[in-house]
Please model this.
Amino acid sequence: MTTEIIRTESISKYYEDVRAVSDVSLSVRKGEIYGFLGLNGAGKTTTIRILLGMIRPTSGAAYINDVKISAGNTELWKNVGSLVEIPYSYPELTVRENLEVFRRLRFLPDKRAVDQIISKLQLGAYADRKAKNLSLGNNQRLGLAKALIHNPQVLLLDEPANGLDPAGIFEIREMLHDMALNKGVTIFISSHILGEVSRFATRIGIIHEGKLIQELDSDKLEALCKKRLIVNAKDLNLAQAILTRMGYSAEKNAEDLLEIESEEAIRNPDTISTEMVNGGCPPTLLKVEEEDLETYFLRTIGAEGGVK
Amino acid sequence: MKFIFVTIWVESLKIRRSRIFWATVIFFILVSSMMSLVMFVQKYPEISAKLGMIGDKASLLRFGEPDWKNYFRLLIEGMSGVGLVGTGFVTSWIFGREFSDHTIKDILSLPVSRVYIVISKFIMVVLWSVILSFVYFIFGLLFGLLVDLPGLSSEIISANGKIFCATSFLIILLCTPVAFLASYSRGYIFPIGFVILTMILANFSGLVGLGPYFPWAVPGLYGMPSGAVGMQLNIASYIILICTCLAGFFGTIAIWRYADQK
Model:
C-alpha cells in the first residue's frame, strides 16, 4: 500500500492577470523522489511556496500527510525541511550560530544536532565563519543543513544544486537518494535541469506556463526519448533513394546527414547497411542516436530548441 | 512560553551580533552630548563667541537660563525627535531586514507560530528603545554634571525623569505602524522614509494647531510646559495614539500571518 505524503488538489495561483500556477494536481508517495521540472517562471517556486504555506492558492488545496497546508498549522512543519531558491542566512551570524538558531526554532533537544549536520554537510572548516563571507556553494550547503538539521520526513527543495560544483552536486544527490531509499524520506525537488533530476528522481512532473503537462515514472523516461538512425554516404542522393525504396522516410538534417525515425530501421541497421552495399552506396556512417533528456524536456514543453 | 523564549533568544542573537546596535547607542550618546553642548555655550558665552557659528546659533535658540530645569526640558524635547527617529530606525531594521536579507522564507515554515516571531520582534524593539532612552538620559545627566549646571536636586531629576520616561513610552508605542510598513513594503527603506515624513508632519501639525491629534506629535507635546495654546494634550490625543499603535500591531501580525510571502 502506498501512502500519499504530498498532495495538491487543483491548486491555482493568480496574480492579477498572471496565472502563476493553474489547476495543478499532483501527489508524492512516501519515499518517493519527485522531480518537479520546468523552465524559469514555469510555476515551480510558486508551487513550492504553496506547499510551504508561504502563499495561499487562489483555488484548490494542498496537503502534507493529509493535513491541509496553512500558515497557522505550525505542527505540520515539524517533519518538513525546505530550501527555497537561493538560500540566505543571517549574514552577521556564523554557520554554527545560524544552525543553532534553527535547532532552537525547531525545538530540537539534542545540542549535538548542530555539529552533526555541520559534519554531514562538510561545513566543519567554515563552522565559525560568518554567513556573509561564505561562497555561493557553501551558502547552499548551509541552506541544506538548515533544511536537514531535524532529520525531516518530508523535504521540499527548490533548485538545491544551485551554486554547487560537480562534486557537491554528486554528494548531495547521493545523500538525498540514500535518505529516500533507506530512511523513507519523501523528497519534492524542483529543477530546470532534467538531466540532473532524472538521475535520482523516481517520478517526474513537468510544469509549463503554470500547468502540469506531464507526470511519469522516471524509469519510463528513457523509452519516451526519441531515437533516430543517422546515415551518411558518399552519394547522399543515391542513399536516400535506396532508403526510400526500402520504405523508409529519410530526411536530410541540418548537418547534411540522413535521419530515419522508423522503429524498424532503428532495430535493424544491419539490414539497411546490407541493402546500401548491394545498391552500390555503402554507408560511411550508420548510428542510432537517442534524444537526450534535455531535448525531450524541451520537446515536451514545446519550447524553442526542442526537437519537434 | 517556550515558544516566545526561543524566538526572543533568536531575535536577541541577531541584534547582539550586529554593529547597528552599537551604532545607535553611540548616536544617542552623541545627541545627548550635543544637548549639553547647547547648555555649555549658554553658560559660557565668552567661549560661545570664540566658537563662532555654533555659539551664535546656540544663543539664538535661547533655551533660557543654563540650568538643570531648562536642560532637562531640552533633553526631553530632543528625545521626542531623536527617539522617534531612533525607534523608527530600530523597528525598520528588526522587521525590514528579514525581507531585505531574504531570510524571511526560512522562518515561515517552522513549528513556531509567526505571531510569536512578530511579538518577539516587538519585544526587542521595546528593549532596544528602552536601552537607547536610558543611555540618552544617563549620558545627558553625566554631560550636565560636566557642564556644571546649577539647580540640580533629586526632585528635579525625579520629576523630569518621569516626563522623560512617559515621552519615551509614547514614542515606543508608535513603533507598530513602522513595523507594519516594513513588513508591507518588505524592506527598511520605505519605513525609514515614513519616519522622516512623520517628523515633518509632526512639526507641521503643531504649527497649525493639530498637534494633539497627530500621534507622532503627541510625545513631543507631552513634555510641553502647561499654558502653551493649542498644544495641550487631551484624552482624544491618547486614544488616537493608542489606536494607531493597535492598528500597527495587528496590521503587522496580519501581514505576517495572512499575506502571501512571495
In short: Chain A touches chain B through 32 residues (CB under 8 Å). Confidence is low (pLDDT under 50) at residues 304-308 of chain A. The CA atoms of residues 54 and 65 of chain A lie 18 Å apart. The radius of gyration of chain A is 24 Å.
